[in-house]
Specification:
Keywords: ATP-binding, Folate biosynthesis, Kinase, Nucleotide-binding, Transferase. Its EC number is 2.7.6.3. This protein has 185 residues and is α+β, with helices and mostly antiparallel strands. The chain has helices at 20-31, 71-84, 116-120, 139-148, 161-167; strands at residues 3-11, 36-41, 45-47, 58-67, 100-106, 177-179. It has one domain: 7,8-Dihydro-6-hydroxymethylpterin-pyrophosphokinase HPPK (Alpha-Beta Plaits, 2-Layer Sandwich). Helix content is 26%, strand content 21%.
Length: 185
């Protein structure tokens, strides 16, 4: 089996892999080996942390990878990388992290969705949910995703990444986001 997956990368705490910027850059290198290859990588962005107050800003990016791993195996690999980068436990929701890697989409597959109301309430299941249940609500994911995959459509909501961004309040392409690089790291 070979498929393409969209992976969100983020970090806002230093750890064994260095600064948040260094952790995201190393995670990209790790995504480019062991049965996976990076096809496209967004520029890096700095975003305000959401959730718990007082957190440092995040470094965010989105990568498109080709992989022969099924989604569940890919998720296990991403969780191992998070652990190697210093992440312990599952942290508090929306808390600070040494590294956070999420599968946003895997070849348009839909699994584990319990409806938009459950997603909005944060009551999603603990197993792998595809597409990621909060992709459509996160400017720090949608903006870099638009950079590398403007044609992407949310498999459940059936809206383009541009339509999802346009539906968010404010100006999500500029509010609380700052591009750190014009080209991929």
């Amino acid at each position: 089996m070979r498929g393409n997956a969209l992976i969100a990368l983020g970090a806002n705490l230093p750890g064994p892999w260095g600064s948040p910027l260094q952790a995201v850059q190393r995670a990209v290198r790790e995504l480019d080996r062991g049965g996976k290859s990076v096809i496209r990588l967004s520029p890096l962005y700095e975003s305000e942390a959401i959730g718990q107050p007082g957190q440092p800003p995040y470094v965010n990016a989105v990568a498109e990878i080709a992989t022969h791993m099924p989604p569940e195996a890919l998720l296990r690999k991403l969780k191992r990388l998070e652990s190697e980068a210093g992440r312990r436990g599952r942290n508090a929701p929306w808390g600070a992290r040494n590294l956070d890697l999420d599968i946003l989409d895997y070849g348009g597959r839909i699994s584990g969705w319990r409806g938009i109301n459950a997603v909005m309430a944060g009551a999603g299941p603990r197993k792998l949910t595809l597409p990621h249940p909060q992709t459509h609500m996160r400017p720090f994911v949608l903006v870099p995703l638009e950079d590398i995959a403007p044609q992407w459509r949310h498999p459940v909501l059936r809206q383009s990444v541009t339509e999802l961004l346009d539906a968010l309040p404010g100006n999500p392409r500029h509010d609380r986001l700052r591009r750190l690089s014009e080209t991929s790291p």
